[in-house]
Write a structure and sequence with these properties.
five-stranded antiparallel beta sheet; single chain; about 300 residues; 4 domains; alpha+beta
Length: about 300
């Protein structure tokens, strides 16, 4: 009798161990998701003048995964852009070409000597797609243009003397005069008495003159030369995005708005009846049920321990 009790106890321990192992397997974590490729960043971006196309260039090495090139839509400066093509270009080991760069700068003088002092004979340049080189100034392309005009106004005054007048009557005094090409108007008259009984009038005139002047100058010049780079087994991918102009958002009329989720579809004016949340069975619960069933079957099959 004692041996039978021990046998049934051992059987019970085995069943419990089996149940625990199956329960652990039921609650095991899901396998990890595959690693995402590292994002790629463009080496150059160009945009058409009308905004209808954007090209993003990616120069990738052997260790880079092109799957990391962004392909999703985006919005920029009033346009919605969608990827339409992804080009693959084999880059040569050494790449070079002729390049011309135009520079512009302000100047306070149009004197060519002062202008050339602003322009170095050579300049280092890097193009938008990453080629670099030393470019030389082309003297025949140097131009100086007026950047803008300003105006200034100054007050003018003049005095005139009119002697030998019979009496102090302003009808003998001119109401306006011309002085150095500018028209002046009479302001005041001072009278002086002469020894013979006549009068001298001292008249004061005033006016204004407006003149224009050059605010400054703009200097432009071209630099030309060879630009190059070493690609080191690079492959270029060009992502082409086409853009469509965004429509302006419609303005909503002020007023109360009703949340569609809070109304009854049969009667939009009536509030919807609240619904009780429904507990969805989880995967863990479904996995535990077979384990419990196995334990029950084994216990029943074992008889009365």
């Amino acid at each position: 009798m004692k041996r039978k009790t021990i046998t049934h106890a051992a059987r019970l321990l085995c069943v419990l161990a089996l149940a625990m192992s199956m329960t652990t397997a039921a609650f095991a974590a899901d396998p990890p998701e595959p690693a995402q490729p590292s994002p790629c960043y463009p080496t150059a971006v160009t945009r058409s003048e009308d905004g209808g196309e954007i090209r993003k260039m990616y120069d990738l090495g052997p260790e880079d995964d092109p799957a990391g090139i962004p392909r999703s839509d985006f919005e920029q400066e009033g346009y919605h852009y969608t990827l339409t093509d992804l080009l693959k270009q084999e880059l040569p080991a050494n790449e070079s070409r002729q390049h011309t760069e135009t520079v512009s700068m302000p100047s306070q003088s149009k004197d060519m000597g002062a202008v050339l002092a602003l322009l170095p004979q050579t300049k280092e340049f890097i193009t938008e797609d990453g080629l670099a080189g030393t470019l030389a100034l082309k003297l025949d392309t140097v131009k100086v243009e007026v950047a803008g005009y300003g105006s200034s106004t100054k007050n003018l005054t003049a005095t005139r003397t009119y002697p030998g007048l019979a009496d102090q009557d302003t009808q003998y005094i001119p109401k306006s005069i011309t002085d150095n090409g500018h028209s002046l108007t009479l302001q005041t008259v001072n009278w002086q008495t002469e020894g013979d009984g006549h009068f001298t009038a001292v008249a004061s005139y005033s006016g204004s003159a407006t003149s224009s002047y050059v605010k400054g100058y703009t200097v432009t010049a071209d630099y030309a030369g060879t630009v190059s780079r070493i690609n080191l087994n690079k492959i270029r991918y060009v992502a082409i995005f086409e853009g469509t102009a965004l429509e302006p958002a419609p303005t909503e009329e002020p007023g109360d708005t009703t949340d569609p989720g809070l109304t009854d579809p049969a009667d939009p004016t009536a509030p919807a009846e609240p619904t009780a949340p429904i507990d969805a069975p989880t995967g863990e619960k479904n996995n535990v049920l077979p384990v419990v069933a196995v334990v029950v079957v084994v216990l029943l099959g074992g008889g009365a321990f």
